[in-house]
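Lab notebook, bench 4. The sequencing result for the construct came back, and we need a structural model before the next group meeting so we can plan mutations. Quick request posted to the team channel:

Model the 3D structure of this chain.
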Amino acid sequence: MSTEPSTRFRLSDQYQQLKSAIHRNLIAQIEERNLDIDGWDAPRVERYVLEQVRLYVTQQRLPVNARESEILARDARDELMGYGPIQALVDDDTVNDIVVNGPNRVFIEREGLLSVAPIRFVNDGHVIRVIQRILSPIGRRVDESTPMVDARLPDGSRVNAIIPPIALDGPCLSIRKFRKQALRAEDLVRGGSVSQAALEYLQGRVRKRANLIVIGGTGSGKTTFLNLLSQWIPRTERVITIEDAAELRLEHEHVVRLETRPPNLEGQRAVTARDLVRNALRMRPDRIIVGEIRGDEVLDMLQAMNTGHDGSMTTLHANTPRDAIHRLELLAGFAGFTGSDNTFRGQVAAAIHLIVHVARLATGERRLMSVAEITGHNEQGMSMREMFRYDLDLAEHQDLRTGGVA
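Done. Here's the predicted structure in token form:
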């Protein structure tokens, strides 16, 4: 399939040079006239930029038609007020992830599948300027002394940026966008991600205060599913959430949201997830929800689940329920746990009731793969009973309680 003329125009070197020249001309006009465009509404900015672009094209006698002038004006506006070439992707609700691998390679994810985006930056410096513009309003920065940053945008989207000399092939930027509307149970059932029987089972267990862990790989939908489960927490309960980047949106009347803080430039004043879990225990919580267990907070989270905070939830990177237990053991070792494997498994068996496994398939679809109930432990390992399973060969959910299709 051939590329549309407008797309070919935007990807050409001529366009990149022309856009840079127009951007410099706009900045010069704004500074010369002392215009406060930050105080203008969007339609006024659009009209002004389009007028200036058309004037510049006419004065320079450039071979640019009306359609191409509109494209230049839109991109010039994004350079002035937004995130440059990726602004349209940020505004597109169908795009879930934006990945920039240097100035000439931009990818997007739609419905779980990555594809190349028909845009490019001028050079490495252009990418870095956009990164700085994204980070500036939230008080973060990235430079040679701090070449990596992980942050959250005001709308909840997660941003990660890494630049040279750490990134050898140019500055990289990834944005995991925040859904404007949380997924509902009926959306997942309608899309085939989960069966109605499994949802009803999980809803009952959440309301009866079962402690659970949602596991899966990167991008599998762990946080999305955790957010769904949290919707069934009774409104009378006090919930405290702890996250590295606040993504959970609990439609609940009594929620206290806590967020970790990275160290400053001197490497001090960091607030870790473990600090927040310990503090949450003193805040009279009914339930504690940790966005993801990835470090030494594992011991405090298990302790919370074992000491009267039933109904607590978290997520964990793991590929199977069995793998989740091994990962918990590994994290506990990093946290300084010196007891025996059998002792730790006993603590896990007493703390965690359910392991919910979600995954992203090769087709990009996200599925609830398994719901496993922890029934006990012994010297050989944990005892589990699988309640629901998605059969990849049959492409259907199975209710293992009844032996039928869920």
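The CA atoms of residues 112 and 147 lie 29 Å apart.
Will bring this to the meeting.
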